[in-house]
Design goal:
CATH topology of the largest domain: TIM Barrel
Strand content: 15-25%
Oligomer: single chain
Radius of gyration: 33 Å
Strand order of the largest sheet: 2-11-10-5-6
Shape: globular
Number of domains: 2
Distance between the termini: 90 Å
CATH superfamily of the largest domain: Glycosidases
Helix content: 25-40%
CATH architecture of the largest domain: Alpha-Beta Barrel
Largest sheet: 5 strands, mixed
Number of helices: 14
Structural class: alpha/beta
Length: 456
């Protein structure tokens, strides 16, 4: 009996021990939940993601990047552009919060890489590619009744414009032979610079549409006469010596085809004059030079070859684009696509500089704010398709001028068509009292979508 009980107790304890061992083993293998766990204490892996992963920006524009760090309580990152912490003025800069700012100048287009590196694990990072474009948006920052010139500059800069133009009238800056006064022009340049980095373009209206604009004592001198060329080069040298580091481009004449078509014997003298001007400007290596024609002249079968001959000397092919009928009434905005094809065809191998682009909104001309806004949309669409072939585009104007001011412009350039005043007085994307038109609202939307201003 004693031996039998002892054997029974042994077998009971042996069975209990085996059961307990099996239970402990199951808990170890499966975890407390009872599910199979191959590595219940595996360390968390740090990972970094970045949004967006691509962006396309014009010079001076910004893009906000957002990083997400998982796998660590330390979610900080270090930002770099092209492997440089914080970037630099050449490839762009990025803030500690991930706001990337494209450089204000760009010698050639191309991508840069923005990288967020985990501070918890420097081997973990995420990158985005930013394509930088040479395109410069400009809106001619005309003031209004309730908007000062500086406030107008702030408005256009806020909309993404990084270009501005000024006009230089030879008779105004040379009031008597070889006596120069550039005060007004230099004050304009300084005012523009005070509101932030802008690419500044100068239009020197030796010819301004239908008129010659030269000092009175040179009124009858041929363009290529020694008297004319010597005086012009003296004036231009004096001007460029003061502003060469402040301006980016210069046009020798505005809409020259209008005057030269009316005086066809002056095409060749003007070409000779222009050649000497180009040679002088090129001694200032940072300034690009061109001569501005109308869109109609550039694509015309008879006038186009003369313009093309001038542009063999140019750094930039410059023109003004207003889709108009002969009487200053606007064509339908749908013509923009076909017109841009012709603009590109008229400029083989050289960058295009659209010095003025505009569309009237006057109902007296059969137009409207809606048509003007559609024109703005269509222009942006075609510009983005053209890419860096069109490097500068200036919408003209920010604000409508007054009827008196428009009539003064008509008198200055020798235009007598009565439709000119309602045409010129409704080119603004905003009204003369400083209120918005639909065109201004549209421009801001299109500029942001095209990467000219801050991206959310």
């Amino acid at each position: 009996m004693r031996n039998s009980t002892s054997r029974g107790s042994f077998h009971y304890r042996e069975a209990l021990s085996q059961s307990l061992i099996a239970t402990i083993f199951a808990l170890l293998v499966c975890g407390c939940s009872g599910r199979l766990s191959t590595n219940p204490q595996s360390p968390l892996v740090v990972a970094v993601t970045l949004t967006p992963t691509t962006a396309s920006l014009a010079i001076g524009a910004t893009q906000q990047f957002t990083d997400t760090v998982t796998g660590s309580s330390n979610t900080g990152v270090t930002w770099s552009v092209n492997c440089l912490n914080g970037g630099n003025s050449t490839c762009g800069t990025i803030s500690n919060s991930g706001l990337y700012t494209a450089p204000n100048t760009l010698s050639s287009p191309g991508p840069v890489t923005v990288t967020a590196i985990s501070q918890a694990d420097s081997t973990k990072q995420a990158s985005a590619t930013v394509t930088l474009r040479l395109q410069v948006l400009s809106v001619a920052a005309s003031p209004a009744q309730n908007v000062s010139a500086l406030a107008a500059l702030d408005l256009v800069r806020g909309a993404g414009a990084r270009g501005q133009g000024i006009e230089l009238h030879w008779p105004d800056v040379e009031p008597s032979p070889l006596v120069y006064d550039f005060t007004t022009v230099i004050n304009q340049i300084n005012a523009i610079r005070s509101q932030g980095p802008f690419r500044i373009h100068v239009t020197l209206g030796i010819i301004n549409t239908a008129m010659r604009q030269v000092p009175a004592d040179l009124a009858s001198a041929p363009f290529d006469s020694p008297q004319m060329t010597t005086r012009f080069k003296s004036m231009l040298t004096a001007f460029l010596n003061q502003v060469s580091t402040e301006i980016d481009s210069i046009s020798i004449g505005n809409e020259v085809d209008v005057y030269l078509n009316a005086h066809p014997t002056e095409w060749l003298p003007y070409a000779n004059f222009y050649g000497q001007a180009v040679t002088l400007v090129r001694t200032y290596s940072s300034i690009r030079v061109g001569v501005t024609s109308t869109y109609g002249g550039a694509i015309d079968a008879q006038t186009g070859p003369f313009i093309a001959n001038l542009n063999t000397l140019s750094d930039l092919v410059m023109m003004n684009y207003y889709p108009l009928n002969i009487n200053f009434t606007p064509r339908d905005p749908s013509v923009v696509a076909g017109d841009f094809v012709k603009i590109l065809a008229a400029s083989p191998g050289k960058p295009i500089f659209l010095q003025e682009v505009g569309y009237p909104a006057s109902t007296a001309l059969g137009s409207s704010e809606q048509l003007q806004a559609q024109f703005v949309t269509n222009v942006f669409s075609e510009w983005m398709k053209a890419g860096d072939k069109i490097q500068f585009l200036n919408f003209f104007l920010l604000h409508d001028d007054t009827p008196q001011g428009c009539q003064q412009i008509a008198n200055q350039i020798g235009v007598t068509d009565p439709n000119f005043v309602p045409f010129f007085c409704s080119l603004g994307l905003r009204n003369s009292d400083g209120t918005d038109k639909l065109g201004w609202t549209t421009l801001k939307i299109e500029a942001q979508a095209a990467g000219f201003t801050a991206q959310p």
